[in-house]
Design a protein that fits this description.
Layout lengths: L7 E6 L6 H14 L6 E7 L4 H8 L4 E5 L16 H7 L3 E4 L2 H7 L3 H13 L3 E6 L3 H5 L3 H12 L5 H4 L3 E4 L13 H19 L1 H4 L4 E3 L8 H5 L6 E4 L6 H11 L3
Parallel strand pairs: 1-2, 1-8, 2-3, 3-4, 4-5, 5-6, 6-7
């Protein structure tokens, strides 16, 4: 982490978990544990059906609520989708874009990510743009070719000032939900190279202001080591964000001096 230049952000991705009543109970449990948060911003990205309840439950706390996905169109015949307008009116502050599960199961592409990033920014939402390589791509030593392509296409046409509002989450696909985790050195190396790519696109000042998270099975035990890497500015947390003590432990690790 480097708090001198950029914000540390710990974001939970609940995926398809928790009913509204369960969401309320979990946030109420978390609020007391996170009341002393001082350095980092805390975000919970919840299912669409939980958003209204989550915003209400988090009111007055240091928890911001985010969405897990959105469509790039304002309205129309897109059954089952939600728009940026809908999210904004509910009080959402962040939205995850291009998560590997959306890419794998729902045909999300770099091009649709680009459209979503632009629409999110236009509507005052902070996109959490997910990028990452598969196990085959890592074994073939093309990790950065894959990630540079994802970053460059997703941010095509995004201005310098707009880019500063984007959070990038590096999530090696082989480490999501598998229990495997990139070593702190591997995570730090890729996050540093993502910043190099951003520097090429936007210049040094903008690049060092952009938050880059690690999103591959960060948990209470490995968070401190991962966050000690200078270019790892937080985490996009999956399973551990569904357990208040575990999530609080990660936030505590981000709050250490």
């Amino acid at each position: 982490m480097n708090r001198r230049y950029r914000k540390t952000i710990i974001a939970g991705n609940w995926k398809m978990n928790k009913t509204p009543s369960e969401a309320k109970a979990l946030i109420e449990e978390m609020k007391g544990m996170l009341s002393k948060t001082k350095w980092c911003e805390v975000v919970l990205c919840v299912p669409f059906t939980d958003i209204q309840t989550a915003v209400k439950a988090a009111k007055g706390s240091k928890i911001a609520i985010g969405a897990e996905n959105m469509h790039f169109e304002k309205s129309g015949a897109f059954t089952g989708e939600v728009s940026a307008d809908m999210l904004k009116e509910l009080g959402v502050k962040y939205v995850i874009i291009g998560h590997s599960e959306r890419r794998q199961y729902f045909n999300e592409t770099d091009e649709t990510c680009n459209k979503k990033v632009k629409v999110a920014i236009e509507n005052g939402l902070r996109p959490i743009l997910c990028v990452g390589e598969s196990l085959t791509e890592r074994e073939q030593d093309v990790t950065m070719e894959v990630i540079r392509k994802q970053v460059k296409i997703a941010l095509q046409g995004v201005t310098v000032d707009e880019a500063k509002k984007v959070v990038i989450a590096y999530e090696p696909i082989w480490a999501i939900g598998t229990g495997k985790t990139a070593t702190s050195e591997q995570a730090g190396e890729v996050c540093a190279k993502i910043r190099d790519c951003l520097r090429e696109m936007y210049g040094a000042r903008a690049a060092r202001a952009i938050t880059i998270q690690y999103g591959g099975s960060m948990n209470a035990k490995n968070a401190a080591e991962l966050l000690a890497q200078p270019d790892v500015d937080g985490g996009l947390i999956g399973g551990a964000s569904l357990k208040a003590p575990d999530f609080a432990a990660i936030v505590d690790a981000a709050n250490q001096n």
